[in-house]
């Protein structure tokens, strides 16, 4: 739906108030499409605030259907819209670098549906839930935890520990048991660890170090 703003944009101090019935049947946010189940009339007040420049202010409300982000139940969500925009005549249009590309303006015509879509995206909720304390579903069996419990193991290991465990397993795989190297004692001929005192005769390099009974 287009609204002609020529009169407001070209006449300083001019104010126009209008009520518009939006025709949105669905909205698309983040690649997902949500059906609109209810909408209220949008009241817009458009005021000239300078040559070729006007402020658009208004309020609206839409109701759309979506799925709970935890238990996946169908829910109806109400989105309150507060519109506060500045629009320009074609010869006063700011550059895109100023942060508002005015996609809803086509010459002196304002596309109300496109304006509402912009406001819907800006005001879209971070998380959609059937209720604030929704417990979600079991990730293993799919049981709705709002209506009952299950016997699944709910332990969730810390993913940081998996890295440490992997390092430990790799090191353990390289561990080997090796037999010690033995040599004969130069005095008594008994087998002994190199560079150690012979446990049998108590000598090292044929010199008595400790007394052996």
Can you characterise this structure?
- With 213 residues, the chain is of the alpha+beta class.
- Helix content is 15%, strand content 34%.
- It has 3 helices and 13 strands.
- The chain has helices spanning 6-10, 112-122, 159-173, and strands at 2-4, 15-20, 26-29, 32-39, 42-50, 53-67, 74-88, 105-106, 109-111, 183-184, 191-192, 203-204, 207-208.
- The strands form 4 sheets. Strands 2, 3, 4, 5, 6 and 7 form a 6-stranded antiparallel β-sheet that branches. A 3-stranded antiparallel β-sheet has the order 1-9-8. The protein has a two-stranded antiparallel ribbon with strand order 10-11.
- The chain is elongated, with a radius of gyration of 39 Å.
- The N and C termini lie far apart (111 Å).
């Amino acid at each position: 739906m287009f609204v002609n703003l020529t009169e407001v944009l070209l006449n300083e101090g001019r104010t126009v108030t209008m009520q518009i019935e939006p025709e949105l049947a669905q909205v698309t946010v983040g690649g997902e499409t949500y059906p609109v189940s209810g909408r209220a009339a949008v009241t817009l007040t458009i005021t000239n605030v300078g040559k070729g420049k006007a402020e658009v202010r208004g309020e609206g409300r839409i109701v759309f259907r979506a799925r709970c982000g935890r238990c996946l139940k169908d829910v109806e969500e109400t989105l309150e819209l507060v519109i506060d925009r500045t629009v320009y005549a074609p010869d006063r249009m700011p550059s895109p670098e100023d942060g508002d590309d005015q996609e809803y303006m086509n010459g002196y015509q304002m596309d109300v549906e496109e304006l509402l879509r912009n406001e819907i995206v800006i005001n879209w909720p971070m998380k959609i839930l059937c209720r604030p304390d929704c417990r979600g579903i079991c990730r293993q069996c799919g049981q709705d935890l709002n209506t009952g419990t299950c016997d699944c193991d709910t332990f969730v290991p810390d993913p940081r520990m998996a890295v440490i465990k992997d390092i430990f397993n790799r090191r353990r795989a390289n561990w080997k048991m090796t037999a010690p190297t033995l040599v004969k004692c130069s005095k008594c001929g008994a087998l002994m660890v190199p560079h150690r005192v012979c446990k049998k005769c108590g000598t090292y390099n044929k010199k008595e170090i400790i007394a052996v009974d």
